[in-house]
Amino acid sequence: MSTDTLMRRFGDRVACVAQQPPDRTLAGFAEQLSVAAGRLEQAGLDDGGVSMAAVYLADAAAADSDAEHGALIERATQLLEGAGDALDRYRFRSVRAPVTPEEFRDSHGPCGGWSSAEIESYEHLVEAGSCHVWSQAARTGRVVLGRHVDGGQVVVDLGRIRSVA
Fold it and tell me: What DSSP state is assigned to residue 115?
């Protein structure tokens, strides 16, 4: 992956976690990534991989040869690809979540491009929005068996508790 592609792919997320405007130089991006790594580690979302990626990028910015630069960028890319969910989780913690599943879908676009953190956040919104179903099920001696989508709506499947003889 090229330096430009790497910074386009991760720059806005890293800047958000670092709480700084995106830096479009490799050395500046490496510094932002170092700040973001500290925040991710404090939040328990990273075990040091993002810090290592920041070191690789700082070294790449100072590399003497194209081969060394490319190898360091590749190592950093591999670490950052594994940290994409951590960056998203941190961002979602610090930003007001949409109130309804519809608002979430509107703000995050087609679900085919969602990260696992976005999918998990959406599932929590759907569950929170159907809490009345859970209480109704408990009152009537039923259990929630699962959920499915029907015509763009989430339908909760209920079943009766049967005693096992």
Answer: -
**List of residues 6+ apart from 123 with CB closer than 8 A:** none
**Is there a contact between 97 and 122 (Cβ–Cβ < 8 Å)?**
no
How much is the CA Rg of the chain, to the nearest whole Å?
21
φ, ψ (nearest 5 deg) of residue 147: -135, 150
pTM, whole model, 2 decimals? 0.57
Sequence-distant (6+) residues with CB within 8 A of 159 are 142, 143, 145
pLDDT digits (tens, 9 = 90+) for 155-165: 767 777 664 33
Residues 6+ apart with CB under 8 A from 153: none
Containing H/E element for 49? helix 49-61
CA angle (139 as vertex; 138, 145 as ends), nearest 5? 35
Instruction: Kindly give, in sequence order, each residue whose CB lies less than 8 Å from that of residue 27, ignoring residues fewer than 6 positions away.
Output: 58, 61, 62
**Angstrom distance (rounded) from CA 54 to CA 83:** 12
User: Exposed, middle or buried: residue 52 (CB in 10 Å: 0-12, 13-18, 19+)?
Assistant: middle
